[in-house]
């Protein structure tokens, strides 16, 4: 069985904008949350509380772009 978890896409920092644009073009609007995971090491812990916890989509409709 596949667990209901967010998708994680790992790419180079200079490709984040391109990936985000591709998601907007090919995914139905308001069906997925695309959440960039670009933070300094010391603030990454806050990301999980600040960004991920505020998502309005089910976990299998979340895309973490790292």
Structure overview:
With 66 residues, the chain is of the alpha/beta class. It has one domain (7-65). The chain contains two helices and three strands; from the N terminus they run βαβαβ. The chain has helices spanning 16-26, 44-50, and strands at residues 7-9, 33-36, 62-65. The chain has a three-stranded parallel sheet with strand order 1-3-2, with helices on one face. The longest helix is centred in the first third of the chain and has 11 residues, at 16-26. The radius of gyration is 12 Å and the shape is globular. The relative contact order is 0.31. The model has no long low-confidence stretch (mean pLDDT 85).
The gist of it:
The protein has 66 residues and is α/β, with parallel strands linked by helices.
Fold topology:
Elements: E1 7-9, H1 16-26, E2 33-36, H2 44-50, E3 62-65
Parallel strand pairs: 1-3, 2-3
What radius of gyration results from the CA coordinates?
A: 12 Å
- Number of separate helices: 2
The proportion of residues in beta strands is 15-25%
Shape: globular
Which segments are poorly predicted (pLDDT under 50) over 5 or more consecutive residues? Answer: none
List keywords for this structure.
66 residues; alpha/beta; three-stranded parallel sheet; 3 strands; globular
């Amino acid at each position: 069985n596949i667990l209901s978890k967010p998708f994680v896409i790992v790419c180079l920092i200079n490709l984040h904008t391109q990936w985000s644009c591709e998601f907007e073009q090919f995914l139905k609007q308001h069906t997925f949350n695309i959440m960039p995971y670009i933070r300094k090491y010391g603030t990454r812990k806050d990301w999980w509380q600040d960004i991920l916890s505020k998502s309005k989509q089910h976990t299998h409709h979340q895309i973490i772009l790292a």
